[in-house]
Structure to design on (262 residues):
DNA sequence: CCAGTTGTATATTGTACCTATACAATAGTC
DNA sequence: GACTATTGTATAGGTACAATATACAACTGG
């Protein structure tokens, strides 16, 4: 299986790099890969690792800080928060179901067997059930 | 529940409109909302309905035709195919699992209860199990 | 206090989306 | 068979945004 705490981006993807970084890092944070109080790599360090400009990583960190995942300050770096009190976001009508269906439809179109998709979703659903 | 065969786009979303149309239509096609041989609205008709330029819809139809969902010709319009022989696409390493985790992480960040996410995924998994 | 480190701000460049407009191919009608 | 309307297609331009280069401001640690 893939090593934890790894962020992979695809420079050829039409999806913005800063958004890929946000999405990837957020998944790790939700999965509990980082403990509260822990230091994240600096924007420059992660930028070198990923082969992008440090401003691109900085933009990603800003998004996650805005979401309440990080504490971001000059000279200090990025620190992971425990996020007990996330900012009051819009809960209602969060098109998760629709986006999920669209994601599955794309996978089916690309030839992924439905059984495989069903398994992965069931597995993740179980994991969410008992944290 | 939402009326079938409806396509909704968000002009304010950073996501390209043509991609929203593709994703939405593809989900309907996978769900079997359209029968093979059936006519889809013309690019101009759908464009008027959605409030965009017909070239934007045309680009979406072209993507779906490339994927094997539509037969697209001038003067004739867009016809739904049964897609028994989709083009041999890359099956392996189709980041479905990773994208799924990222989608869930975003929903959790936005405050959607994990139980709700688990339920929706389990429901869709069941539906995929018995087509 | 000072040097180094960290995140931030601003300007520039490239790219992609969306539209406007004109064109080409097909269908239907007589 | 020719005409006309309808349909998808091709091309170019306006605009917005992503990614970078560069310079700046704030914090840390000795």
């Amino acid at each position: 299986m893939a090593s934890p705490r790894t962020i992979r981006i695809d420079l050829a993807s039409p999806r913005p790099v800063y958004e890929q970084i946000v999405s990837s890092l957020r998944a790790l944070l939700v999965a509990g890969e980082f403990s509260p109080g822990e230091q994240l790599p600096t924007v420059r360090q992660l930028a070198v690792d990923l082969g992008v400009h440090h401003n691109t990583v900085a933009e990603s960190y800003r998004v996650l800080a805005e979401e309440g995942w990080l504490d971001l300050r000059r000279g200090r770096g990025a620190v992971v928060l425990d996020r007990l009190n996330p900012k009051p976001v819009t809960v209602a009508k969060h098109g998760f179901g629709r986006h999920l269906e669209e994601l599955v439809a794309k996978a089916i179109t690309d030839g992924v067997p439905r059984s495989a998709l069903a398994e992965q979703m069931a597995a993740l659903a179980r994991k969410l059930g008992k944290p």
Observations:
- The longest strand of chain B covers residues 70-73.
- The helical segments of chain B are 17-30, 43-50, 54-66, 96-109, 114-129.
- Residues 16-18, 52-56, 59, 73-76 of chain B lie near DNA strand C (CB under 10 Å from a C1').
- Chain B touches chain A through 48 residues (CB under 8 Å).
